[in-house]
Amino acid sequence: MSNYVVTVSREYGSGGRLIGKKLAEELGIAFYDGELLSLVAKESGYTEDFVRRNDQKKTQSLLYHLYIGSQLLPASDMIFIAQSRVIKDLYNKESCVIVGRCADYVLRGQPNVINTFITAPIESRIARVRDEYGESADNYRTYLIKKDKNRIAYYNYFADDAWGKVQTYDISVNSDIGVDLSAKLIAEYVREKLAAK
């Protein structure tokens, strides 16, 4: 079988990163989430700290860019371009799972790319963010909505499609069935889909 990539898009607090990591283990392939940022730093020439601070952020205001200098593109755009090159390079080199970073959009139309979306009821997401991630907020519901709005704004800025739109994903999973079972379900789908080609 030739190389393949599984992209994981997710609602905040749905456990998408955990599922992606478990999925990579289940399939015996590489896993990229924050690890991608080191590769992006090398590709872009920016420091890793700078890449991390600007990761998955949409472009700032024009005044901000006038203030920081005369570079042709905003830093977030330059990082997205470098990130896209890294994602395409990974696609050409190895089978892997990539979490977030518009990977589904960057690899759109390529063969052997399976796009997944992880969702969960808001009550489950609140419990995970509070109990597993250890994050605190005055109002968890508002906190989660804001986190998802940031993801939507980032995705919709760089991609010409809508984040979370069901037609853009091969499979969507409600993670209330658990991280392990979610990963196994997606792994089975991936194997069946690739075997059918």
Helix and strand content put the structural class at alpha/beta
Q: H/E element string?
A: EHEHHHHEHEHHEH
Low-confidence region ranges: 61-68
Mean pLDDT across the residues is 89
How would you describe what is shown here?
With 197 residues, the protein is an alpha/beta fold. The protein has one domain (5-191): Rossmann fold, CATH 3.40.50. The chain contains nine helices and five strands; from the N terminus they run βαβααααβαβααβα. It has helices spanning 16-27, 36-44, 48-54, 62-68, 75-93, 103-106, 122-132, 140-158, 179-195; strands spanning 5-10, 30-32, 96-99, 113-119, 171-174. α1 (16-27) crosses α9 (179-195), α2 (36-44) packs across α3 and α2 packs across α5. The longest helix is centred in the middle third of the chain and has 19 residues, at 75-93. The radius of gyration is 17 Å and the shape is globular. Mean pLDDT is 89; it is low at 61-68.
Question: Keywords for this structure?
Answer:
globular, five-stranded parallel sheet, 197 residues, alpha/beta, Rossmann fold, 9 helices
In a nutshell, what does this entry contain?
The chain has 197 residues and is an alpha/beta fold. The protein has helices at 16-27, 36-44, 48-54, 62-68, 75-93, 103-106, 122-132, 140-158, 179-195; strands spanning 5-10, 30-32, 96-99, 113-119, 171-174.
Layout of helices and strands:
Blueprint: E1 5-10, H1 16-27, E2 30-32, H2 36-44, H3 48-54, H4 62-68, H5 75-93, E3 96-99, H6 103-106, E4 113-119, H7 122-132, H8 140-158, E5 171-174, H9 179-195
Helix pairs in contact: 1-9, 2-3, 2-5
